[in-house]
Queue: 2 jobs
Job 1
Amino acid sequence: MSTATATHDAHEDHGPAKGLMRWITTTNHKDIGTLYLIFALIMFMIGGAMAMVIRAELFQPGMQLVDPAFFNQMTTVHALVMIFGGVMPAFTGLANWLIPMMIGAPDMALPRMNNWSFWILPFAFTLLLSTLFMDGGGPAAGWTMYPPLVLQTGDAFPFMILSIHMMGISSIMGSINVIVTIMNMRAPGMTLMKMPLFVWTWLITAYLLIATMPVLAGAVTMLLTDKFFGTSFFSAAGGGDPVLYQHVFWFFGHPEVYILILPAFGIISQIIPTFARKPLFGYSSMVYATASIAFLSFIVWAHHMFTVGMPTAGELFFMYATMMIAVPTGVKVFNWVSTMWKGSMTFETPMLFAIAFVFLFTIGGFSGLMLAIAPADFQYHDTYFVVAHFHYVLVSGAVFSIMAAVYYWLPKWTGHMYDEKLGKLHFWLSAISMNVLFFPQHFLGLAGMPRRIPDYSVQFTGFNQISSIGGFVFGLSQVLFCYIVYKTIKGGQPASEKVWEGAQGLEWTLPSPPPYHSFVEAPAIK
Amino acid sequence: MAHAQTDYYVPHGSHWPIVGSIGLFTTAIGAATWMNGQAGPWLFYAGLAVIIFMMFGWFGTVIHESLSGMYNRQVDHSFRQGMMWFIFSEVMFFAAFFGVLFYARNFSVPWLLGMGSGLSTHEVLWPAYNQAWPTNGPADVGGDFEAMRAWGIPALNTLILLSSGVTVTLAHWALKSGERGKLILWLGATVALGATFLGFQAYEYIHAYHEMNLTLHTGIYGSTFFMLTGFHGLHVTIGTIMLLVILLRCLKGHFTPDEHFAFEAVAWYWHFVDVVWLGLFIFVYVL
Amino acid sequence: MKRSTAVKGVTTLASLLLAESASAEYRLNMTQGVTPISHDVYDLHMTILWVCVAIGIVVFGAMFYAVYKHRKSKGAVAANFHESTFAEFAWTIVPILILVSMAIPATKTLLAMDDLSDSDMTIKVTGIQWKWKYDYLDDGISFISSLAPEHNQARQRDSGIDVTKIENYLLEVDHPVVVPVGKKIRFLTTANDVIHSWWVPALGWKKDAIPGFINEMWARIDKPGVYRGQCAELCGKDHGFMPIVVVAKNESDYRDWVAMKKQEQADALASADRAWSKDELMKKGAQVYATSCAACHQANGQGLPGAFPALAGSALVKGPVEGHIDRVMNGKQGTAMAAFAGLLSDVEIAAVITYERNSFGNDTGDVVQPATIKAARK
Ligand code: HEA
Ligand code: HEA
Ligand code: CUA
Ligand SMILES: [Cu+2]
């Protein structure tokens, strides 16, 4: 790169550089968005393959396929890959593609840093995944990495910690970029309360990320020093406390789960009005609800720790605060239903996923609320009831929203319509098998099956087999998803500018696919 | 807020990020294999060297672009907000360690001593334990030690950092009113104060390790003490280096009274380091 | 108050329905348990479940009605309303009221759970990778409880045993914890190495066992029976294989059991004072090794590379006997190797060391006597 000749390049519509270097050095928000999305899809496949190992081993009682130690590595790495490699990068990819187009900006505010945010990730995950091949295997203490167990990890230990540091650096830089873009790059007239909800939810998510990722970094740094440098943070012998780690971790961890769902709320709030052909009901209450959820998410963390032996006052506080989250979340659900009410609905694939989201996420929310009831959580905690809860909010919540978003905006990105028949097939396969996969896990948990076990008592066989079969079907359906995306990128019916009859927003005023630099001239906002 | 954007500078492709990623990757592998005792520290240092190289290159490019006037107001705003949020993330990083200190002093140690809900813990597991804060825990981890006093070097260091906050502000005023001589004087003084602080802290650490038997191994007291002051010291080091770079750039005449974002960013950072120290002084040393 | 009776009515009806449909094979719902607390928890669970179901019916009913009626293919024309202060206010307040009505019974139950006063006896429960140690603080009984040997064999990957033929597969132990019915029993949970969690669903709660700290919980069991549970906090490789069996007996049977246990313990103590033959030690050692050591160092002494060292050919095992004794008795800080001095008796330690020094191709020929261990404890 020759900086000497660089002048104000922004508005010359030069195309991208050619070949591999284009992708490595790119500062273009669309290229980077694409990179994030492809990366997320690969990680989703890898994490999903690990889930298939889990489900295959759990198909029958008795140990058939893997050893217990390897099973725990699968559970741990499955979760880390899905959360940090799948859902979070997918949302960041969507943010990259969409936020500049939605607010009428030429690009992200800090394009070079944007590139770096992405390009840290492949290295971080190489580090993490390489641990599976090390002596003693990969990390196996669960994605929550509780000490003292995690300190028993073999050679993989520092690799895991440092890979998490790298993921943290990437997320922090990514979120700084999102905030600055939204606060500083809006086209004239695009006031905050005119922004599409996807932009709003991402803005709030980015705050959550900046506030919590450093805390996670601190937590894992203390693990590192406890193991290698003789500190006693998490050891009672030295005056510390293993539970202290859990407090720090969940101070990050609980906001993290809303990081995984707020952008999804944004996506759903874009899609439902489009296909209901009716404006979003209660726009401003949606914004306030999102902000309230974000605020509450900082004061509920210990609901993951009801059984660690907190003083009663603490348990009561965290129980009440957690229950409060149902209120703003409920406002969102009611607003979506009201948006559909008296609409003129059609049911293209994105809308199908959005409706499934509202239905299934809410079920996951209900089980969350049950978990929030501390005395009842004494029974639910660390059983498959919890596993069912969070897969309902993560798979039929976060992942379904991502799929809805891909179907919704793919025509815009590629300029081709996806195959609607296949899309619908994918939807029905996913939605049905997802329930076959996770609904029986509620029963397993209530009947007493703990989570994170590679083998179980014979009484749990039936539901585990149903769940595994659902899992395999769900997994295979995602292969279909990859095929649909691939086919749409390669070709298909040309998509119009607006793509969907009821679509609103600046991104639909650009051609499909949009030019390399979206808004060279600031668009006029009504 | 929003401006006409035809002038917003969107850089060409850049290879610095990938260099940075390779640097981070190398550093991480180097550190991990080193800690595991599988290899020496060389890969770690090599990685750091790549990162430093990247920073030179990347900042060099930015400085060049800035000097050739490619950045308009709006770009400047982006940088400012970016820096602010970066500092906020650092605040949260320290908050985690302060939180740990708070928890250890108000919960875990009292419980081990049998207070609150810790009665059985004390009676059944640690009946002989009776050492309130500062403590190295019921197992006397690291052996007898002496706690760090507040009113010696630490108090002096507080004065030093507070004055450095003043000098950097004086330098800023000088810069804004175009008084180059004063600018360089005050900025130089700030760097010197930063370096003095670090010198004292190094002395304090050596003293702690050699004479007070106060080390990272000294139970929860040693852990929180060195973790908090250590990460702070690291940030002072980084801040001092940044101030030094800014001083060099002042000498080269890079800044004008109106446009000197880099200066301000470093000044903010320095104030942040300052405030954190005040927290440390109160919660780690005095209380 | 009317509403809460209504809720109760629905709840009992529904629980009857559920209980009816639940066969032993496919249990669907939470156990009702055998303690007052567990009944409270069960009722609470059913209440919130049905409240959620009711809300779900309303919300999903509205949504699917709209999906069915307000579709373009049916000629629906979109309305244009997009806010209603009244509706939005209502659906903020109503959920808050529902939540408050849930919070009240929840708070009551929680306070009852945390009320540890007036207990009749205390059992200390210690989680150890991957077994439980029980200390009866009032009676001075203490023993270790691990997965029953038959189950342990069956669960190995290449065992070739059909696990469905094994009764209570993975939920059977060698030494169950025996308790009296009708007494308020205080449980103190703690751990030796990593965090475990002691969970017997029929008692209505689980409590984490945290190394270096003690958590307290209580139970008063209504009726004699065998109640099974498992460790409920990931604690490493064999987390899935550390079950709990509680046997509740009536007072007099319980007393008999205590007397028997005490006798056993006295016998074991006495046997440490005599000299043991090598054969005896090897036989005993093989047993101890299988229950206490094989989980990590493996039955063939080969360990698991990278995680647990091989004892076959180990320099420490073949070296001076003092080093070996020291490692077994005191463990190694910061690794999974626990200090077994507090977990095994003199005889057991002597036996397992003798066994290790003369198995897996380690032919040192050394014999370690219980007296040596007894001396080393000083
Ligand atoms: C996307 C991620 C996501 C989301 C959105 C949520 C949402 C919620 N979660 Fe969940 N949760 C996880 C991801 C998530 N969770 C994960 C990953 C874990 C396990 C971590 C681990 O241990 O590995 C977990 C675990 C977890 C626990 C700990 C369980 C245990 O380990 O014992 C608890 C306990 O309180 C909880 C509660 C809640 C609550 C109250 C909500 C609420 O936000 C839900 C609110 C929504 C609704 C209630 C539905 C809609 C509302 C209405 C229709 C209004 C009317 C309703 C009423 C008045 C009831 N969650
Ligand atoms: C966003 C997060 C996310 C997502 C998307 C998923 C998706 C899935 N998860 Fe997971 N999961 C977690 C987050 C997530 N999970 C977390 C946080 C935990 C807790 C971990 C812990 O305890 O520490 C967990 C734990 C967890 C468990 C409990 C393990 C245990 O306690 O021991 C199980 C068990 O069934 C499971 C299953 C699945 C399945 C079947 C899917 C499926 O949805 C995956 C489907 C995708 C694919 C299958 C990939 C696509 C297809 C192919 C690659 C082709 C090959 C396919 C076939 C051969 C069929 N997950
Ligand atoms: Cu012990 Cu899990
Ligand atoms: Cu949570």
Job 2
Amino acid sequence: MFHVEHGTDDTIILIGRLDASQADKAKQIFESITESKVIDLKDLDYISSLGLGILFSTQIRLKESGHHLKLINMNDHIRDVFKYTSFDKMFEIE
Amino acid sequence: MEKKFKRDISSLENIFEFVEEFISSYDIAPSIMYPIQLAIEELFTNILKYQPDGRSDVAVYLEITDNQLVIRLTDFDSEPFDLTKTEEVNTSEYIQKKKPGGLGIHLVKQMVDSLDYEYNNRTSTITLTKHLEM
């Protein structure tokens, strides 16, 4: 399952598995973001193309108003997925 | 090992469990789990998206042979859709266009060593192989 928690300051923590069955829930959460946020992926075990697409669309929308998402603490598998899709060029990743 | 799954997004959880059960019964690196689950999810959701009128269950078959993991998805009620012939995704281009598309199949191709497609009598069979470090 997938859920989010709001950390301190501007951090959103993604938890669990963001697969296609969770895409609607994730979409709703990300569509409500209107300013720069840090997305903490330390507890995100899995993401597939639908989840990537949601992050991508959010980043595009935020950049239009001078904001952005910064991604931190991604595991090696998720880092690979970002590399394979060139999404690592779209985000500040720490 | 083969299991049939209902043609519905809610089947993903059961598919993941099936893969996990299979992989953990062999002495292979658990790190294989992510790419295999990802490849199967992308292919299964592709079937749901592009074969919406299909009525059959979808079978997932897993086998380890000659240091290779063989994964086969069979859709028994489909129109032909040869995903091995889909255009290569130019990731820089879609970043410029600001519209992601075809990402799933692109990821599958990155995750496995081979991808084959057969179509016969309304049945689509997609076979993937991945070399295993054993």
